[in-house]
Amino acid sequence: MAAARKKNRARTKKRTTTAAPRSSATSRMATGFAAMTGAQKVAWACLHALVLAVPLAMSNWTWLPGVHLPFTFDQFDIVKVFVQRGITLVAFGAWAWHVLVNGGTVRRTKVDYLILAVLGWFALSAIFSIHPPTAVFGKYRRFEGLLSFITYATMFFLAVQFLDRLSRVRSLARTLFVSGTLVSLYGVLQYLGIDPLTWGRLPFEESRSFSTYGNPNLLGGFIVFPLVISLALALSEKDHRWRIAYSGGFFVTVVCWITAFTRGAWIGGAVGLAIIIFAAWRMRTRLTRGDWIFSGGIAAVAAFVVVRSLGADDPVMNVSRRLVSIFEFERGSALTRFQIWDSAWRATLDRPVLGFGLDTFRLLFPGYKPIEYTQTAGYISVADNVHNYVLQMMTAVGIPGVLLLYGLFLTVAALSARNAFARPDPGQDNSRLVLSGFWAASAAYITHLSFGLSVTGSTFLLWIAMAALLAPIARTVDVRPPTWGVFAAAGVLALVLVASVGNIVYIAADNAYLKARLGGAYERRLANAETAVRRNPYNDMYRAEVGLAHSDGFSQLVSQARSTQMQGGDPGPLMTEAEVRFRRAEQSFLETIEFVEWEYDNYVFLASLYNNGAETLSREYNQKALAIARRGIEVSEFGPAIRVQYAIALGREGNLDEAEQQMRYAVEMDHRFLESHLLLANILEEQGEYEEALEYYEKVRALNPDFPEIDSIIEEVETSAGVSLDQ
After folding, report:
1. What is the pLDDT of residues 332-343, one digit of tens each?
2. CB within 8 A of 410, min separation 6: which ones?
3. Domain boundaries in the chain?
């Protein structure tokens, strides 16, 4: 009997330590924690550095004296990826050193195996991708390949290890508030026309906030996080000075949120704000007089910005017209979005299980886009993102991959909701509202992804937010340091060092690419392009730049040879060297096409090179121009640029009827594509169809009134057609 009572007491004790009441999650986060070791402090500081530095990172610092150019060609995404991966490597190395040398605890969540399943499926998809390098590293200026998802998972794991108490969750939220306020403040300055940095021609409307993200759509995705978190901090803060600071940051973020004029972010942000307001009501949050004053001020300024926008002629900069355009499905960006979504769905049906590989949508889109997309968006537009995360991931990793990923999101939401939205016990404050903020911000961002873009500079925050939500309910596993721990820790640090060097080389490659794109002498441009490829051989744009350097160098020598001949000199040596550059360009483009056969642009580059070679070197290159153009048409049926090159080669063969047909098709695809109108006019003129040729020459002049000698060309054709200028 005594033994039985002893056994029952042991069972009772065990149940008491493992089955805590619902409200104990927060209490466990507030007591009984040992001081951090030096390695832990480094890792914890790195988490703060991630949240602070990644949103601010970019390579344009032209406001500094003597700085006239950015450091990298991609001034935003590649820099954020570099900072993100570099800090994560240091954080992981420091944490691994602590556990392997000192032992301690490892915190586990109920979604750890689900995350491993997601990564495993994504890795399998990358292996069978249409282009594994892109699936692993991500497409240039997106970079959301398998490596980025591994980085997300690593950050999630590290955040779970450290966000073991509400004070730390709040500390990380405060850092996000700082970075978000700074990013928003810069965006507001841009809206007001006060930008200390020098930018080139912007591919979007002036006065739209884009801040350190380089694009209003990308900025909008980031903004929903500080938008919600700053309000949660303000409503849960006791110190009135901090409460004012948080409210001020929220005010700046609201203005930036509006002036990005990004509809997906507006919808996502509204969802997040609604959730956090509901959470504040549920937790019986009391508003002070200062809160009401701030609320009124924020509402007044927001209303002023909205009303001010109503006078804008540009529909993008007009809040009312921007909102209405969401439902205008038959024109504008809404129409092109539906066309892109349709292309993504048809691509998914072709590879529904494993998909095409992460971040490969730019490669597959030319082969799936309808002719209507080219007619609406123009020949030069290529969608590198679906603007719908579900469809984006379906094309990337197949339907099972999407179910795994969104199953992860839903599982985290379900597991954390009870703790995040629990009402405080009598006498307790509503500090748990910060957890509600992370829950609401996650919901806001995922909603935004249904209409917007996912980039590493924003999506990493979703994974950190999920860690903040699950950390309070994670279980702890005690770990003793192994006898070989020091050696293992040294090995991990060595790997971290090697990966860090690779990370530096990765961004240094883009610096070389920038120098190559700046042009200059042939030798210098070529050397920079080859340096970029040597440092990062997995980027197909770097490879194509080598071919373009040779191709432009070839054209320069041909031009010099013609000038020399006109002056009575011997063009032979120049043409000999030109042929060398031609063959190098040909070889480079062929290798690039072999490396990434789905990239449409490279076929246009090579077909153009062959046409130039047939014109200046040998007619034998005309057959090669025809062959490579046909391959390009197979890659993109509705690409007018490759059909222009095809028609040029057809015309050289004397097949004017087929060349005319190709150009009529190209004109049908895009009425704004000047080259197709010009070539069709040339073909019609050569066939003696002067009156119709005039129509297309007039269209050339309408598209570009400054086109060289267009007036004299039209005058000559009018004369040939017997049409007087007075008629």
Report:
1. 778 899 999 999
2. none
3. 103-196+205-479
